[in-house]
Amino acid sequence: QVQLVESGGGLVQPGGSLRLSCAASGFAFYYYAMSWYRQGPGQARELVATISSDGASTKYAVAVKGRFTISRDNAENTVYLEMKSLKTEDTAVYYCKATRAGLYYWGQGTQVTVSA
User: Cα–chain-centroid distance for residue 45?
Assistant: First the structure.
């Protein structure tokens, strides 16, 4: 059974940091590109960051570049999103997604709230 389980969300003050994790199981994680998406209140889901299957290539949305870092550990079947200098506009449900050759899987999401 394919599972993507996000964790690490929570409430943080502006300027703070959080580290999200997404643990994968039930599929060949090391073959899949992994991405983080987010969906803020009343907004469409948007791509935040992507990492290639081997971890050699990463891409970021303009809004988070320089503040967020995506990484993966293929031995642990886990992808991470390190978030620093958080802003109120980063408040959203964060989802991880696994993609390969037209196949994709989504996690259930983890809430990140940035508020004073």
Answer: 12
**Residue 19 binned pLDDT confidence (cut-offs 50, 70, 90):** very high
Please give the Cα distance from 56 to 35 (Å, whole number). 14
- Average pLDDT for residues 88-116, to the nearest whole number? 97
Tallying the residues shown for the chain, one arrives at 116
- CA torsion sign for 70, 55, 75, 47 is positive
Of 85, 78, 95, the C-alpha closest to 35 is 95
Q: In degrees rounded to 5, what are phi and psi of residue 30?
A: -70, -10
User: What letter does residue 113 receive in the DSSP assignment?
Assistant: E
pLDDT tens digits for range 54-89: 999 999 999 999 999 999 999 999 999 999 999 999
Q: Tell me what pLDDT residue 67 has.
A: 98
On the 0-12 / 13-18 / 19+ scale of CB atoms within 10 A, 13 is exposed
Nearest to 52 by CA among 21, 30, 25: 30
